[in-house]
Design goal:
Rossmann fold, elongated, 6-stranded mixed β-sheet, Heat Shock Protein 90, Ribosomal Protein S5, domain 2, 19 helices, alpha+beta
């Protein structure tokens, strides 16, 4: 066997404007330097896959080393990182062709070569563009590649600093891999962290932990090898082969949480697009659930190689779902960081979102208790979809659960609500506010309770928005109990009860006086159908904005002018009847009473009196008169 060929190194120029292209690649294409490990491991896994394919017709290529593997060796003292595989390897000519030309790779040529071959379907190539290898120059001053092609007894070394030229020369076969390729990166000073075993192991597990080749790590050249991946992707296995403990361990790795998954979604889609999905709904809220960016946390893999976690696989209202999608259709090329523009990805996004919602629907029907735990954790986020995802509104409304004046501490669905509507009830009534107890005791609910009408109690901020977006359920629109005429007169009271709005002439005269006294502070003052116990309440005009939504917009500085409310007065209340009997000559008392009723309604609505000092003075005068 030849040990070494005496020949001077050949210095060659790259077959492209390498300096310009490398600068573009290093500073523009890749935003994360960790990507170089992904690229080099992908190439190594590719070489092992090529060997597997060629060994079908040439079994001797495997020799005594039939198990594919990738070894990553760290050398902190020498500031080097080495990636070695026992794949097909390259001879000198292949090395010059594959590494000497940007935008051309052995993998791409290999794929073209086997495109029409019968067994090509099982060959899973990863890197299909030539610039991936050159990402090594983001962290290395010099890269040395020594390779020996399977079935040959010669080896060659390629070396370059990435500035425009490279050298290639025969290598000492005694120091070369028995088969395969060794890539040595002489790291830059600011890249010395890539000799830290914790950093490298974490990066490999995150980005390349599921390539179809086992990866071994040696934290120094003479260290004991440590297998850090087994070359088997969990999501490629049948669900029957994966235990609950396996799913839990993987969930904790991919989600970065220490709870257990409340729902596991594992399937393979076939047809127009082929991809595997392994996704989890957490048991508890992730800390970043209400991150202002509302970004998804699903990872995208292509043929078991990590691409990005910024592809937005799922819509933002499903951002609590953790997991990954592994596609067989998407390309691995120079635009991989812009891969979200791919039409194939759009099809995957639609399919995965539909499947997640479908599995949530199935869970709600088969295990209501488990589903309600998910709803309690993520219902506020799911309801964002009612504002954003019109195409899936019906599904999301079916998934929604609510507290109500009838359900109490239990949850109810819209299906249950609609099944119990009263005669002549044309809308689904709701009340919004920040506090469930305050909502439940709101005076606006009194007339609804008297008629046995269920009212949904909505306490999430998003509720004030989706209910006003034109949504309806089974033909019934959503209507706020604080907005406009409640149409309660159409719904009969229990036998023997009179409508609250029936007022005497004296009460009607007093209501007109209150309206004149308050003037522009209110849009109207009228007798109320909805009050049975309280004296007064505030509602929005018929075509005005819901009261809670108006407060939210005003608090956010997005409302220039507030809508004047309507003051509703209960003509059957004892206080109102007494006030209506006060003589016209006691103008000050009547005016104080009008303003105090308005302030009372504001306080019951969670607001302060318009003029706290004037409120205090009026209250003092009225109390003093009563004591005298």
């Amino acid at each position: 066997m030849t040990t070494m060929t005496e020949a001077a190194p050949q210095t060659r120029s790259f077959e492209a404007d390498v300096a310009k292209l490398l600068h573009l690649m290093v500073h523009s294409i890749y935003s994360d330097k960790d990507v170089f490990l992904r690229e080099l491991i992908s190439n190594a896994a590719d070489a092992c896959e090529k060997l597997r394919y060629e060994a079908i017709s040439q079994p001797d290529l495997l020799g005594e080393d039939s198990q594919p593997g990738i070894t990553v060796t760290l050398d902190a003292e020498g500031r080097c990182l080495t990636i070695e595989d026992n794949g097909i390897g390259m001879n000198e000519a292949e090395m010059a062709e594959a590494l000497g030309t940007i935008a051309r790779s052995g993998t791409k040529a290999f794929m073209e070569k086997i495109a029409g071959a019968k067994d090509a379907e099982g060959s899973q190539m990863i890197g299909q563009f030539g610039v991936g290898f050159y990402s090594a120059f983001m962290v290395a001053d010099r890269v040395d590649v020594t390779s020996r092609r399977g079935g040959t007894d010669t080896a060659a070394t390629w070396s370059s600093d990435g500035l425009g030229t490279y050298t290639i020369q025969p290598a000492d076969v005694a120091d070369a891999p028995a088969r395969g390729t060794r890539v040595v990166l002489h790291l830059k000073e600011d890249a010395a962290t890539y000799t830290d075993s914790f950093t490298v192991e974490r990066t490999i597990k995150t980005q390349s932990g599921h390539v179809p080749v086992p990866i071994i790590l040696k934290d120094k050249p003479d260290a004991e090898p440590k297998r850090i991946t087994d070359g088997a992707a969990l999501w490629t296995r049948s669900k029957n082969e994966v235990s609950a403990e396996d799913y839990k361990d993987f969930y904790r790795t991919v989600a970065g949480q220490f709870d257990e998954p409340a729902l596991t979604i594992h399937y393979r889609a076939e047809g127009r697009h082929e991809y595997s999905v392994l996704a989890f709904v957490p048991e508890t809220r992730p800390l970043d659930l209400f991150d202002p960016d509302r970004a998804g946390r699903m990872k995208l893999y292509v043929r078991r190689v990590f691409i990005t976690d910024e592809a937005q696989i799922l819509p933002r209202y499903l951002r609590f779902v953790r997991g990954l999608v592994d596609s067989s259709d998407l390309p691995l090329n120079v635009s991989r960081e812009m891969i979200q523009e791919s039409p194939a990805l759009a099809g995957i996004q639609k399919g995965v979102a539909n499947r997640v919602l479908s599995d949530l629907e199935k869970l709600s029907a088969s295990d209501a208790e488990r589903y309600l735990k998910i709803w309690e954790a993520f219902g506020a986020v799911l309801k964002e979809g009612l504002c954003e995802d019109y195409g899936r509104r019906e599904t999301l409304l079916g998934l929604a659960r609510f507290k109500s004046t009838v359900s109490g501490s239990q949850w109810t669905s819209l299906k249950d609500y609609v099944a119990s509507v009263k005669e002549n009830q044309t809308a689904i009534y709701y009340a919004t506010g920040p506090d469930l107890d305050r909502l439940a005791s709101s005076p606006q609910l009194e007339g609804f309770r008297a008629r046995g009408i269920e009212v949904l109690l909505l306490t999430d901020q998003v509720d004030s928005f989706w209910v006003t977006s034109g949504v309806d359920y089974e033909g019934k629109p959503f209507k706020s109990v604080t907005q406009g005429l409640a149409d309660l007169s159409l719904i009969p009271l229990p036998e023997g009860q009179e409508p609250a709005s029936t007022a005497s002439d004296a009460v009607n005269t007093f209501i007109a006086f209150v309206k004149a006294t308050l003037g522009d502070a209110v849009a109207d003052v009228c007798a109320s159908d909805r009050l049975t116990e309280s004296a007064v309440c505030l509602v929005a005009p018929e075509h005005g904005m819901d009261r809670q939504l108006e407060k939210l917009l005003a608090g956010a500085g997005r409302l220039d002018t507030a809508t004047r409310p309507v003051l509703e007065i209960n003509p059957q209340h004892a206080l109102i009847k007494k006030l209506s009997e006060v003589s016209d000559g006691e103008t000050e008392l009547r005016e104080d009473a009008a303003h105090l009723l308005f302030d009372e309604a504001r306080i019951a609505d969670g607001e302060l009196p318009i003029d706290p000092r004037a409120f205090s003075a009026r209250l003092t005068r009225v109390l003093s008169r009563g004591l005298n």
